[in-house]
Amino acid sequence: MLLSAENLTCVRNNREILSDISIKLNSNQIISLYGPNGSGKTTLLKTLANILPYTKGAVLNPEREICFLGHSNCLKADLTVFENLLFWNGIYQGNQIEIAVSLLELKEIVDIPIIQLSAGQKRKVGLARLLISKSKLWLLDEPYASLDQHNFELFNKIMKTHLLENGGIIIATHSPIEFENVEVLNMSNFKVLNNYENDPFAGSF
Amino acid sequence: MISILKRDVLLSIRSGTGFGLSLSFFLLIIIFIPLAIGPENTKIQSIAPGVLWLGALLSCLLSLDRIFQLDFEDGSLEALLIAPIPLEGIVFAKALAHWLTTGLAITIIAPFIGFLYNFNQYTLFWIFISLLVGTPSLSFIGAFGASLTIGLKRGGLLLPVLIMPFFIPTLIFGSQTVLQAASGMQITTSFLFTAGISAFVITLMPFAAATAIKMTLK
Hints:
The complex is a heterodimer of chains A (205) and B (218). Helices cover 28% and strands 25% of the residues of chain A. Chain A is of the alpha/beta class and 205 residues long. With 218 residues, chain B is an all-alpha fold.
């Protein structure tokens, strides 16, 4: 098992967003979070990644190294692609830069500063962090954003390889996922609807 | 940690906001003040140690808010929070990088500027040493202040107001060291205080700042 959460209540800015979520992820498994905008997909991913706190329940995470990829790419505009990758390589103490560059087809842009890249190219460099981190558990928040069809398929291939290597993925996306055995978690089941319990002004007006 | 240090130094040199900005600001203060107060040697020499230290402190302030703000904006800070290195180490490396590009640069150039003020060699030596030992505390206190103002839209103004009081001891003892060296007095007490403050702040502030960052991001 890579990650499990039981009866989790997620909060953001002291507001309860989601309640009673239970989720279990094994290796070779991918879970897709499904729900409209504002249904708490990002909040759940950040809670599982231990970035946001939770008030109830528990997260069990025997695989301590998690790689969370959010909306932003974590890249420095003034540095080149290679310098950015070198930085994350140092943080994760890996040696995967060349593999990441060849898998994501970044070879042609490796010496170009991030500021000169298009949104899709930046996203690809952002995705490279996943490969560099060597984490078994990937938490992905809209990873396909600004990718074209070719890169969409390229990244799907990378995710499939990751799953075959005993990795696990939790992904929040609006694009259809064409994987076998993908488990879909419908976020609207967990949404906290009337959330005025903690509001001291509730009912005063 | 070394990769953070390398990246921050590289960024500050390349974007031209850390290194060049604080150095030129320091030079401007130091060169313009004698022009403003007139050419009397005794008057200038009596205020020079204070001016040098004040210049160092103000130029250090200029780039403080960038220590964490940029990483917060591009999402790196969140990724670093769950990366396999302790947040305290990250804060330490970032504060050290800030010192290398501001405090250390000023320290190296200050003795040469001291020539303009007609100081003797003994005083120039103590200008160098007191800045070398004292300016790290500015960067580390500043990193703590910067960690408190992460995510605030107009944190740039709040930050100096917030941390200026904590700079006062360093400023007093640092400039006292130079002042006493210039007048040939015993400098031990004020110098040891400067060094003590730095040692205290360097050990403590990474922990305080790491806690503040965790609280802000959550």
